Amino acid sequence: MNFQDTICAVATPPGVGALAIIRVSGPEAISLVDAVFKGKSLKHAEGNTIVYGHIVDGEKVVDEVLVSVFRNPRSFTGEDSLEISTHGSPFIIRYVMKLLVQKGCRPAGPGEFTQRAFLNGRLDLVQAEAVADLIAADSEAAHKTALNQLRGGFSRKLAILREDLIHFASLVELELDFGEEDVEFADRDDLKALILNLQDQIRPLIQSFESGNAIKEGFPVAIIGAPNAGKSTLLNALLNEDRAIVTDIAGTTRDIIEDTLIIDGIKFRFIDTAGIRETEDLIEAMGIERSKKALQDARLVLFLYDSTQGYEFLQDLQGLIREDQTLFWVRNKTDIDESSIREGEIRISARAQVGIEALKKQISQSVADLKTTDTTITNVRHFDHLTKAYSALDDVLTGLHSGITGDFLAQDIRLALHHLGEITGTISTDDLLKNIFGKFCIGK
Ligand code: GDP
């Protein structure tokens, strides 16, 4: 893939900083920057070197800069690329960008550098998406997962799965070429074993999505309790030191407030406790409705009750807890009530901030087992294709079982290959053709 135009963009965030970086990539990158640069000639600079000089507008010096030079194909985009480190004044940045555009650079659209890296074969789609995730990562766990995907572990795994399947697809397609002669190159028992094996490998990938997605977006936590149990007080106590981000999401029917908290490098989202905050005047039924809604979306549930009041309110809700949810019983206001402990409950005083650290530990430990590996799925697009590939493989199995002909089998196998290939952006039909004609040389 060769792009004709040369693009430029500011790579550092807006605002004043000590330094800023302007990135330029494309066939004319070096000569275009050279046209506004005074110093050692960039045209003669080797790749992976840094050149000192000045950005000039005619005779006028605009800034003293360092230019990092990367030469095709050894750059992020695979093209000639430069990074101009200027001083971080918005005036200088605008000025340099204006000069570059005047010389013939085009301001880049969103993601264009990474898109070029993909189209030039420097990254596959999974890795390109991982770049975006890496930039967006705001917790240690999210960072680690994105970095793993950037390194290509998941891509390699997919490549291996596809290779096995392509081999069999080739054999089945070969049978089609001998249509009349009723031959079977692809042993049906072997094919069945292969499909089962592939499904065994795809299943955990699909299953990893739930935690993978939660690691990226945050594990949803609901604090449920009767009015005045101390939910708001607890939330404030939890957020006190570690408050990370507060997101206000304007819902369509009412406002939902999400408070995000990072505990031991893992992100948690406390959902819709706002609704239950002002329950003092609300009739109990309404409180329960809101609790149910919060419960539904939660991965972790804190059942909070006032030690002096008891937990009838919660008993009504307990039946709604699902198997995939973790429930904690938390007894609050233990500063004024010393009643003996019930088994398995966590004792706190939200107001006196007692037991909060221990509660946090329990929260983070409950998801710590969901370790990410380099094949954890965090992307809904990947999840979608994997699910479809899996179901196409199901169809292959059904087909094998009922003894359908090779052409129908081939269709389902092709569909599974298509979905696996879509994930990394590989075009499956090409591969298939290459494999058939490359490996088997049937001389047709
Ligand atoms: P919510 O309706 O569940 O959100 O409850 P609040 O957080 O608004 O608390 C209700 C009342 O209980 C407030 O007056 C709090 O100060 C009080 N409260 C909360 N936690 C504690 C605690 O640990 N000990 C005591 N003694 N009072 C508490």
Automatic annotation (TrEMBL):
Protein name: tRNA modification GTPase MnmE
Function: Exhibits a very high intrinsic GTPase hydrolysis rate. Involved in the addition of a carboxymethylaminomethyl (cmnm) group at the wobble position (U34) of certain tRNAs, forming tRNA-cmnm(5)s(2)U34.
Required co-factors: K(+)
GO cellular component, one term: cytosol
Gene Ontology MF terms: GTP binding; GTPase activity; identical protein binding; metal ion binding
CDD domains per record: trmE, TrmE_N
InterPro entries: G_TrmE, GTP-bd, GTP-bd_TrmE_N, GTPase_MnmE, MnmE_dom2, MnmE_helical, P-loop_NTPase, Small_GTP-bd
Residues where (6S)-5-formyl-5,6,7,8-tetrahydrofolate binds: 23, 83, 122, 444
